[in-house]
Amino acid sequence: MRAAGCGTTLGRIYWIRRCSYSGFPESIALDLAQQRDGAKAADWFHAVLRYGQSRIILHGSALVPTPGPRFTVHGSLGSFIKMGLDPQEDALKAGKRPPALDWGVDHSPAAVSVWLNGSCVRREINCVAGDYPAYYSAIRDAIHGTGANPVTAIEAMRVIGLIELGLQSAREGCVMPVSAIEFAA
To answer: What is the 3-state secondary structure (H, E, C) of the chain?
Structure first.
């Protein structure tokens, strides 16, 4: 069994989120590295997902002591930058349980910068509270046959196919067209 690393196990949820936001890319280029002494799996990755002239860059490292932005989105009219992680995992580690009144509330606002009359205007906005319980309730309902699975088998297969294509890109050192993913319906 292959050791899991940033490009596989840790990355699956991250990649599912990206693809759910923007659909599947036209191509992928992935670079992996083992930067820690004695690393058995990739602990650094840099992926470029191509969408026509647009790019989504996914990047992660196990060696970063100070976290950078969680999301950075730049467009022709401005930017959105979100620092910090979803607070739900730390809340669980601290012993909190839903439905605490402040469950999922992120006290770190996002920064939005837009061009207005030739000047950059920056403001902070609060993000929607996270809701792990809603996801797991949907999984429960799908298992009981009373609701739809929040991530369909086809969606999961496509993301795994994209990750495998990315791993091939890393091995071969080239950009891989996503059309190379084959699915049996």
So the answer is: CCCCCCCCHHHHHHHHHHHHHHCCCCEEEEEEECCCCCCCCCCEEEEEEEECCEEEEEEEECCCCCCCEEEEEECCCEEEEEECCCCHHHHHHCCCCCCCCCCCCCCCCEEEEEEECCEEEEEEECCCCCCHHHHHHHHHHHHHCCCCCCCCHHHHHHHHHHHHHHHHHHHHCCCEEHHHCCCCC
Whether the per-residue pLDDT at 1 is higher than 50: the answer is no
The rounded distance, in Å, linking the Cα atoms of 84 and 11 is 17
- Give the number of other CB atoms < 10 A from CB of residue 174: 10
Summarised one tens digit per residue, pLDDT across range 82-91 is 998 889 989 9
2 within a domain of the structure (yes/no): no
84: in domain:
yes
Residues 6+ apart with CB under 8 A from 9: none
| pTM of the complete model | 0.76
**Residue 13, domain CATH:** 3.30.360.10
Report yes or no on 3 lying in a domain.
Answer: no
* Structure token digits, residue 41: 């799996």
**Residue 25 located in a structural domain:** yes
50: left (phi over 0), alpha (psi -120 to 50) or beta: beta
